Task: structure prediction
Amino acid sequence: MALVSMREILNDAQKRKYAVGGFNVFNFETLGAVGEVAEELKAPIVLGVAERLFKFVDVETLSAAILCAAKKSAVPVALHLDHAHTYEGVMKAIRWGFTSVMFDGSAMSLTDNLKRTKEISNIAHSLGISVEGELGYINCYRPSEAGDDENLIKLDIVADFVAKTKIDALAIAANRNHGACKNEIQLDFARLSQLSSQISIPLVMHGGSKLRKEDYRDAIQAGISKINIATDMSLVAAEKLKSELTTSPNANYVHLMSVVKKGVKDSVRKYMLYFDCISKAM
Result:
């Protein structure tokens, strides 16, 4: 088991119709929380670190800790660079031992996105590293905040993008900001199924925190193989800190870390149950 490429994890998820949690970690508490729950539930995981975190955290040290934990793990673990917008960020992640990178060129023109994603895919694949790409407004959700129907990317263009870039997974966004859903979102399962039938690679749901259990299960059947959880983990950690300090204002930091870790573990466990990935590492 231990450290593997994201391609290996997602191919199994796609084949056996479950979703892997793509959990973004940002310190040792969140790393421990996700890893311990994955071991407990025997679930494969993708541990993500967003490029924007590079400004605030020593990611080189954090990624070394993730690699150490992954190599000792009894479940498959991929170390994934989430939402990289720069070539430099991708190269740093590759040097630090990431087994997967996501290049997010969705704000670029289609031509530039295709060109840059293809370049990164060629480099990464030569080193055995998986690649996740993203297009713009694919619209598998309604109502959508992403744009108007006239900006909708046609399915044949999506298929062409996947074929030319040779990416291993394609991200689709629940909303423009990829964060926790602010409004109730209804997934367009028919369009998800259409998209999945046009391409052979796994689909990744971004910005889909706090959907209903039934929505996750239906999305998986329609082609989703990884569901990213990032903002919600950060919000859970912050809420646990605020709640504990309200009742125990003199609590020391070591105690607060344990409270945060427990809160994140409870959240991760809930999502893993929703994603139907329990015991899939066996």
